Amino acid sequence: MIKLIKQEQLLEKDFRKIVIDELQSKENTDRKAEANRRYEVYKDKTVKWVVKKLHDEGLEEKTISLMKNRATNISICRKIIDKKSQTYLGSVQRESSIESKIAGTPQIALLEDALEFNENSKKSDRWLELFKNTATQIVPVINQRMSDMVGSPQYDLKMKVFSPAQYDVLPFAANCEEAGCVILSEFTETNSAQDKKNQEFIWWSDKYHFTTDSNGDYIQAKSPIDKRNPINLLPFAFASEDQNGSFWADGGQDLVDAAILVNTLLTDINSIAYMQGWGQIVITGGEGLPKQFTVGPHNALVMTYDKDKEPEPKVSVVSPTPPIEAWLKLIEQYVALVLSTNNLSPSNISIKLDPANFPSGVAMMIEQSQSTESVIDKQAYYRDIERNLWEIIFAWQNLYYQQSKLTKQFSMIGPIPEGTEVKIKFEFSKAPISEKEKLENIKIRKELGINEEIDLIMIDNPDLNHEEAEEKLLRIKKEKLSSIANTISASFQKPTFQKQDQSNQNNDDNGNTSKEINTDSL
Fold first, then answer.
1. Taking a C-beta distance cutoff of 8 angstroms, is the pair 50, 264 a contact?
2. Contact between residue 473 and residue 454 where contact means Cβ atoms under 8 Å apart
């Protein structure tokens, strides 16, 4: 990869053309193709890659067509990635060093909502797990509807999370792990000569910003007149794992390969079960019989033969007995290995795959696995990334506010005071528990006396505030008192006795018989 010595090189057409040729090279398009493969498998387009694997194995088209109709598409990759992405699993508290509020709401909170900051941060966390590289961009994007209404360009700030298939990087020669220039372009699978010719490239560095065609010529309508970056900040924040002296981190194919292989094995089992269910008709004897027959529920085999010259034809249905149970055991062990090598413990999983539940069983194995990774280090990593992002956001917000180019949603937030910093605090989310576990926890707390009754009410009803919890506790006590009063009242009511026949006798406590006592005379 070409290295950037100084940013002024970007203004030289010959240099840009050399860079573009390298971006369109097989090595770089292969890198993007791998990122695109991971994206498609994550987005549950695994069947495409299962079919490709079957093609690579040399199967006939007729066989592949049959298997494609029964191909499984279990979301192994997506489930594992989502399970591993825990950085933003809990809530995040952000406070600015200079508290500035608009109608009682902090500016930071308003920007969070407008940029969909938390949703995009979760996506970045997932993309980092999936690709090992991801970039988050903050840029102004024209709001055409508002621009038409106002009569002048109006912009929203947008937060975008990119996969490695969507961008290229020119690293600095002095530090290959640091981006000197980011180049955005669309990835096409065909990578034909026409595709290459029609490509456009958006260039960003600290100093410069412009768009070129595949020859490196400026597209003037899509580039600032002075080709300058107005905020003098690279509008990207990068997240990478294990760069090891180069910008692009290696590795991460194992999970995608595993997802494709498991779905291929499950597709094999589905296809085998289908073929085994139909069985294979075998005809022996009869010299003049055709080599192939059309069989099925609405077809009959009619065979004639010369009994004096030919043996009698015999028809049988042969059903193979493939070792499906052994295959399922292999899949079960393989999924467990994939989980353990991706820091997800399958030790507490008791699910066993069988022919009746293997698709849902695989998904449940992943669902019940537990992450063994420490999220603290990753949260510290993302804390630094967020500081970089907020610096970029403040720069765009202040610049476009001064130029009156922001839509109402952003203009009402106003300028960000100089020197504002954002403090980020991650709050850990609690693991979900069953209703039975929650009630047992409340019971133990009550028995130990470590909580007041009002606290126990709020543990059981986390949505209630203190005042609402007091009202609920009061209602519960009133209902208990009412129930006790009713019980006591019932126990003190005057007993009634029915007169019995003189011949009826009752045994007293000593076993003696006595006649009924008339209580009216007492």
1. yes
2. yes
CB 265 within 8 A of CB 359: no
Answer for the pair 320, 299: CB distance below 8 angstroms, yes or no.
no
Q: What value does the mean pLDDT of the chain take?
A: 84
- Which residue would you say has higher pLDDT here, 506 or 313? 313
Q: Rounded to an integer, what distance in angstroms lies between the CA atom of residue 379 and that of residue 89?
A: 11
pLDDT beyond 80 at 177: yes
Structure tokens at 179: 């981006």
**Two structure tokens written together for 106:** 């902090």
Reading the block at residue 258, the tokens are 């595993």
Distances (CA, A) of 58 to 54, 63, 265, 274: 7, 10, 16, 21
| Nearest-angstrom CA–CA distance, 400 and 297 | 73
How many CA atoms lie within 13 Å of 473's alpha carbon, on the beta-carbon side? 17
| pTM, rounded to two decimals | 0.74
Q: Compute the distance between CA of residue 177 and CA of residue 137 in angstroms, rounded to an integer.
A: 18
Cα–Cα distance, 428 to 269 (Å, whole number): 42
d(CA 32, CA 30): 5
Task: Kindly state the tokens that stand for 224.
Answer: 């600032």
β-strand 179-184 against 92-96: which pairing, if any? unpaired
> Residue 179: CB partners within 8 Å, gap ≥ 6?
169, 170, 171, 172, 234, 236, 238, 247
Give me 376's structure tokens. 């603290």
Q: Are 282 and 320 in contact (CB under 8 A)?
A: no
The answer to whether 387 touches 422, Cβ cutoff 8 Å, is: yes
Nearest CA to 98 among 467, 316, 416?
416
> Residue 264 CB: number of other CB atoms within 10 A?
20
> Distance from CA of residue 391 to its chain's centroid?
28
AA identity, residue 429: S
